[in-house]
Specification:
The protein is an all-alpha fold. Helices cover 83% and strands 0% of the residues. It has helices at 6-38, 41-77, 81-108, 110-116, 124-136, 138-153, 157-179, 185-209, 224-257, 261-299, 302-338, 343-357, 361-375, 379-405, 413-432. α7 runs antiparallel to α8 (185-209), α10 packs parallel to α13 (361-375) and α13 (361-375) packs across α15 (413-432). The radius of gyration is 21 Å and the shape is globular. It starts with 5 loop residues before the first helix and ends in a 12-residue tail after the last helix.
């Protein structure tokens, strides 16, 4: 499964996952386009409230998928297929428990949840409507990412890509049907987003039900230590995925606090879509490389793992620079798709996007290092970088810098946090040395 040159493995594993995740991000963006053109600024702000929750759900799913995937790829590398099947089924049951908890608690406390996520009195009812659909169908969202990640670790990256892409395309079709012919307004946009992952799950299930690979459904005795092991290994991925949700939450709060109001929330929704595209490219590459790094760890091919990391670093940095150049040249056209008649909002978004994205070429490097250290079981290093770019630098910078330099500086804080994190990651890499080997522990 993992034979071939570095660039061939990158193309075989990283590129399909990036494409699949990119399609998944596109359906959130299409929601914004339909909402902006059909319903206007306030409805866009209401949809923005749900973005952190969606990112939390994806983060929970990816935490389990990555933690289990690291073990599975290492186990398959050592020909321990029975252990891999046990890990797979433990991950399935763990995700089912998480899904039921989220669905139940979310519906019971939906009004305070909407307020916590940043809804204002003017948009509260629409925010609750959107959130209710997302929460009710959340198990399908969780399992679409979980099964996709596990299929990738089972040597089927193209199947995972197709499943995510098909779910995204179906969402786009349903967006149009629900919002135009059926005129369901924001409920239609939410329902389309909620139903898309069902198609992804239906595409992925036969691979495991029909035992087409090494992984399949089987009776499994759950042990708490096994669940803890999966979650511990997957926690850096949770933080890495959750960073988008954390930053969106922090910015929603800061935008209201700094007096930007509904125009600020609506603008940040669209800027957030652009952020989602860029980070999804990086996250897709990184998640696609996870099985490769983990397999090399299991087989002891440390030099091949380092070669892949160096090659990927060049790809990530180059991709980030190209993305920023495209934002400088063409961002206004992108923003105009959402609210073509609202010139004030378009001008606002364009002026804030340039400082917001100026340091994003370093975000890719940070995400790569998290994936590399996590997959090779240097969990503490991966966690340190994950926490730095999520709950350390962004809140601190957003809280402190406006007091020193005025409210406008909040649009620069995200790039500054990625820059500081990249410096930290590079220092850790230099300190640990290039010959450090993963410390393998007793696994499932």
């Amino acid at each position: 499964m993992y034979e071939g040159k570095t660039h061939s493995l990158f193309a075989r594993y990283a590129v399909p996952q990036m494409i699949g995740l990119l399609f998944n991000s596109i359906y959130l963006i299409v929601d914004g386009i339909f909402i902006g053109n059909r319903l206007g600024r306030d409805s866009m702000a209401a949809a923005a409230v749900a973005v952190p929750l969606i990112e939390i759900l994806i983060s929970l799913s990816m935490a389990v998928a990555s933690g289990a995937g690291i073990l599975i790829s290492s186990q398959l590398g050592r020909k321990e297929n029975d252990k891999a099947v046990k890990t797979f089924n433990t991950a399935i049951l763990c995700s089912a428990a998480i899904s039921i908890l989220v669905m139940t608690a979310g519906n019971l406390f939906i009004h305070p949840l909407a307020q916590l996520l940043g809804s204002t009195p003017q948009i509260h009812q629409e925010s609750v409507t959107y959130l209710r659909y997302i929460i009710t169908f959340s198990p399908f969202l969780v399992f679409s990412f979980l099964l996709g990640g596990l299929a990738r670790n089972d040597g089927c990256p193209k199947l995972a890509m197709f499943a995510l892409a098909f779910g995204s395309v179906s969402n786009i079709v349903l967006d149009y049907v629900f919002m135009y012919p059926l005129n369901m307004e924001i409920a239609g946009a939410a329902l389309a987003t909620a139903l898309g992952p069902i198609f992804s799950v239906l595409i992925l299930l036969p691979h495991f039900l029909l035992k087409k690979g090494h992984l399949f459904f089987a009776k499994c005795r759950i042990r708490l230590q096994n669940v803890v092991r999966i979650l511990k290994l997957g926690f850096p991925s949770f933080i890495m995925e959750f960073t988008i949700g954390i930053i969106t939450f922090v910015y929603n709060f800061a935008i209201v606090r700094c007096g930007y109001g509904e125009i600020g929330l609506a603008a940040y929704l669209v800027i957030g879509y652009l952020m989602l595209i860029i980070l999804t490219i990086f996250l897709g590459f990184a998640e696609g490389l996870q099985p490769v790094f983990s397999y090399f760890t299991g087989t002891g091919e440390f030099q091949r793992s380092r070669d892949m990391r160096r090659f990927a670093a060049r790809v990530f940095l180059s991709t980030g620079i190209v993305c920023y150049l495209l934002i400088v040249l063409f961002s206004r056209y992108f923003f105009s798709i959402f609210t073509p008649g609202d010139i004030e909002l378009i001008d606002f978004m364009q002026s804030k996007s340039l400082p917001y994205f100026c340091g994003f070429f370093l975000a890719g490097y940070n995400i790569l290092m998290i994936s590399y250290w996590q997959s090779s079981q240097h969990t503490k290093k991966a966690l340190a970088v994950s926490l730095a770019r999520s709950i350390l630098w962004p809140p601190v910078l957003i809280m402190v810098l406006p007091l020193l330099f005025g409210n406008e500086v909040i649009w620069l804080c995200h790039s500054l946090s990625e820059t500081l994190t990249a410096c930290m990651a590079f220092c850790i890499l230099l300190k640990t040395g290039k010959h450090t080997k993963p410390q393998l522990r007793k696994e499932l």
